[in-house]
Amino acid sequence: MTEILRDKASLRQWRRGLPETKRVGFVPTMGALHAGHVSLMHQARETADVVIASIFVNPLQFGPNEDLSRYPRPIEADIAKLEAARVDALFLPSVEDMYPPGASTLVEESLVSGPLCGALRPGHFTGVTTVVLKLFNLVQPDIAFFGQKDAQQCAVIERMVRDLDVPVEIRRGPIVREPDGLALSSRNVYLSPEDRAAAPLIYKSLLAVRTAYQGGEHDAARLAAIGLGVLAQSGRIRAQYWEVRDLDSLGAIITVGGRGALLAVAAHLGTTRLIDNLVIGGDS
């Protein structure tokens, strides 16, 4: 059975009870768990002695016109998935417990959080780094697992951990996809049947650019134009960005060099915003 810890006091008591020799793996989530989350839990189970997950829909990372109020919260189904994945404990705090009255301290990363989603969602990554550092302080994990689908989030957290000397190893889990290529996301449930049918073009645009790169096209602007051209095949997809970026800084590049690059896309289908990415070149 997965032990459910509903507040910080319970979590601290649970953590103090663990032997110092036990290696703790941590999978932070916002719930609405799918196979991508479960793959991270399996990765943690294979790596650590004790596995803890968290479910917390963090209000700090939602903008005023985003989907905080309707974000899916199927907690009973989530707990069943955690138990099936042999997760030892779940931290399930309230907003009031995580952010007590008068809380005014924020954690801001100022480089890799700037472009891509950071440019479109002001304050989003400050909300992410603030809650993740709080969770790290509470859980005190040895290793934490994040999904590559949120590549910019991974980069921001890695930079925060490096810059602030947080003693946590960050590991990325690969993107898990539907058979037609759509990256698994808790927000996929929002898609209408028509939008769901169009959504695989996002991944197809990434594959088309990878093929062009492998065929000798290394100009970043031309590669991005190819990706946008694929998305344009469906009138339902509204691209927010389609970018070719440096793997580490996420800064703009002119050509894809030997180290490779990150292909990153964000798009709307109806009212649903989806993101996806692919690494090209280097060891990919």
From TrEMBL:
Cited Pfam families: Pantoate_ligase
Range of residues in the leader sequence: none
Active site: H37 (proton donor)
Binding locations of (R)-pantoate: Q61, Q153
EC code: 6.3.2.1
Positions of ATP binding: 30-37, 147-150, 176, 184-187
Pathway participation: Cofactor biosynthesis; (R)-pantothenate biosynthesis; (R)-pantothenate from (R)-pantoate and beta-alanine: step 1/1
One example of a Gene Ontology biological process annotation: pantothenate biosynthetic process
Origin superkingdom: Bacteria
Binding site for beta-alanine: Q61
A cellular-component GO term for this protein: cytosol
Protein's cellular compartments: Cytoplasm
Catalytic activity: (R)-pantoate + beta-alanine + ATP = (R)-pantothenate + AMP + diphosphate + H(+)
Keywords: ATP-binding, Cytoplasm, Ligase, Nucleotide-binding, Pantothenate biosynthesis
InterPro entries: Cyt_trans-like, Pantoate_ligase, Pantoate_ligase_C, Rossmann-like_a/b/a_fold
GO molecular function: ATP binding; pantoate-beta-alanine ligase activity
Subunit structure: Homodimer.
Similarity-based family: Belongs to the pantothenate synthetase family.
Miscellaneous note of the record: The reaction proceeds by a bi uni uni bi ping pong mechanism.
UniProt function note: Catalyzes the condensation of pantoate with beta-alanine in an ATP-dependent reaction via a pantoyl-adenylate intermediate.
Protein name: Pantothenate synthetase
Gene it is expressed from: panC
